[in-house]
Amino acid sequence: xxxxxxxxxxxxxxxxxxxxxxxxxxxxxxxxxxxxxxxxxxxxxxxxxxxxxxxxxxxxxxxxxxxxxxxxxxxxxxxxxxxxxxxxxxxxxxxxxxxxxxxxxxxxxxxxxxxxxxxxxxxxxxxxxxxxxxxxxxxxxxxxxxxxxxxxxxxxxxxxxxxxxxxxxxxxxxxxxxxxxxxxxxxxxxxxxxxxxxxxxxxxxxxxxxxxxxxxxxxxxxxxxxxxxxxxxxxxxxxxxxxxxxxxxxxxxxxxxxxxxxxxxxxxxxxxxxxxxxxxxxxxxxxxxxxxxxxxxxxxxxxxxxxxxxxxxxxxxxxxxxxxxxxxxxxxxxxxxxxxxxx
Length: 343
Known about the structure:
- The chain is of the alpha/beta class.
- It has 10 helices and 14 strands.
């Protein structure tokens, strides 16, 4: 039996036509799922009983299990158990402009970035679109809030699960779905160039963020193994193509590691690399974990780095630190890899 949250409008159109119903039923179902937030098909009030019974035969409304919720200042971290027993994490951040949710796209991750807790977990499987959608629905229900922004940069490399991520975006962006505006959705990638190429072709109006984290290949090779396949030169080429084709700005993510990539020469290299590129740099204070070999840059170093970029006319911000006390910050998500059912 299939989970109905994993179905796009187009797929539901095909389904309803296959059972002799008009395709407008798809819109009705979306309204019951995402506006009325039903928990049982019997709650549907504008469909024939036979259609509802058929839905009950063919689909389920199964949710994820919330195993644990940790609360920090303006942040909530959720540990979910999937229906197959695997676990993922999602983080809700409260901003002055709204509520932003960082969702996971995979169980584990194969990118192996050395500064990232998620990268220490080998990929077990991709999430389907429904499992991503449910992260939003269940956190909205639990906190009694409306999520206004979604960042696709939790556990997993989104573009290593491209088709499901695009399907997820289509569902949450649909006016009859969760109806989150495309400009309020950001997808982040470590640099899978063929998938960025496809993303350009698909013409999605959502925001693109690139995890760069180093201004040269020698350093990026050490931090991010993906760079040995798709180096900075190739990455900059596709970034410039994306900007030209879409006329949109790209976010460059740069995590600040003490003594590793935060020196004056690195700031100067980065400024040179991004000269004339329509982007803005998001400097991310590193979030140390108990078993991390890296240390965070101090505030003075981060400000000096920031000032160098500013003087070189690079748009730059310093990310506000969220959730460090509940291990919910950037690079800290690990889905409690050691969690056991009997704990």
